[in-house]
């Protein structure tokens, strides 16, 4: 059961997706200036040198994504948006999907990762490569190039790895990395495999520097130890100075890692997180962080973001910033057609729009956000109202129907003996409503 959501501004009228073009904000002199404005630089190597490098001739940069799941998530999306901004500025992106580092796993501060089968990791590499390719241009003057670190680690013998790479690392420095230090202080400790992860990531940067002239790596600030492992390795092995940017970790107002609730990530794969669920996720963001989210995850220019920031301050009840954020990011991830379906579903679910016009998948995603009951087509509505929690008793259900306060699929019910027969959408789904604000879903599949 969902209560109170029907009041949300934006769900009472149908709207159309109108998203900003994917481009840089021309009010900034360099892409570095725009990244700083958008809060995308939490820590970096020499800021002045980076500003000069990013404002000059095109450079090659990379960001790595490990296949520890069959999809990327919102944390990865933050990196992909940064990469896209750099690409729009003319720089050359390398999208690294870690076929070898994914076999080991970056150390977590709390416990050892479960190793996945080689076949599983190889399958996930393919999935993630496809996702990375969706967010970065693969044509034009500076197309994104996919690379897989398994290509250069698999042929390397253990002795060669230790002689050519391992000799440049100091154990004392490695022990100071935050995740490693946390694990060393725990009862479980840390395996040599995970301890060596930073060496593998450092080797990636060295390989990309030698092969492609890559001079910048981006990643989350929690990866800073791994990022600098690469810059230091290149300095020691090649005598060259290269750069790294650590983006801030975005958190919920209560401090939780952004995009995660009870351990469940918001995925970029529509089969794992539907466009409707993603749209609702952004729509429900807190006023305290919505402006920063607009800066980090959208391509809206500063002028428009300033307008939305004023709207948050002057008329927060309209939730204009959240509506724009939801449309912008959902369209960037899933396209405008899927986003329009999500918006139409939101409007129809809360009484403005035609539920019957929604595609079955979109309708299913929408009612999955409600208290959901299963039933047969001949199930009495009185019983379903009670089972769903919309009423506490059958007598209360009868009173609600008699008072005209019950509807099925936005059609008012007058007969207390009514069933679901002939009312199911797509032969399977129904939305029960009591009053204006309280909803439940029925799945008769």
Automatic annotation (TrEMBL):
Name the NCBIfam families on file: tyrS
Q: What does this protein do?
A: Catalyzes the attachment of tyrosine to tRNA(Tyr) in a two-step reaction: tyrosine is first activated by ATP to form Tyr-AMP and then transferred to the acceptor end of tRNA(Tyr).
Q: Which GO terms describe its biological process?
A: tyrosyl-tRNA aminoacylation
Q: Which family does it belong to?
A: Belongs to the class-I aminoacyl-tRNA synthetase family. TyrS type 1 subfamily.
Instruction: Please name the GO terms that the record assigns under molecular function.
Output: ATP binding; RNA binding; tyrosine-tRNA ligase activity
Q: Does the keyword Ligase apply?
A: yes
- Describe its assembly: Homodimer.
**HAMAP family reported in the protein's UniProt record:** Tyr_tRNA_synth_type1 (MF_02006)
The compartments listed are: Cytoplasm
Top-rank taxon, per record: Bacteria
Annotated positions binding L-tyrosine: 62, 197, 201
Motif 'KMSKS' region, per the record, lies over: 257-261
- Segments carrying motif 'HIGH' region: 67-76
Where does this chain mainly localize?
cytoplasm
Q: Where is the RNA-binding S4 domain?
A: 379-440
Its recorded reaction(s) are: tRNA(Tyr) + L-tyrosine + ATP = L-tyrosyl-tRNA(Tyr) + AMP + diphosphate + H(+)
The UniProt entry's GO CC annotations, sorted and at most eight, read: cytosol
Q: Which enzyme class, named as a word? A: ligase
Q: Which InterPro entries match?
A: aa-tRNA-synth_I_CS (IPR001412), aa-tRNA-synth_Ic (IPR002305), Rossmann-like_a/b/a_fold (IPR014729), S4_RNA-bd (IPR002942), S4_RNA-bd_sf (IPR036986), SYY-like_C (IPR054608), Tyr-tRNA-ligase (IPR002307), Tyr-tRNA-ligase_bac-type (IPR024088)
What Enzyme Commission number does this protein have?
Answer: 6.1.1.1
State the UniProt keywords alphabetically.
Aminoacyl-tRNA synthetase, ATP-binding, Cytoplasm, Ligase, Nucleotide-binding, Protein biosynthesis, RNA-binding
Query: What name has this protein been given in UniProt?
Result: Tyrosine--tRNA ligase
- Residue numbers binding ATP: 260
Q: Which organism is it from?
A: Agrococcus jejuensis
- Pfam hit, one: tRNA-synt_1b
Q: Where does the sequence pass through the membrane?
A: none
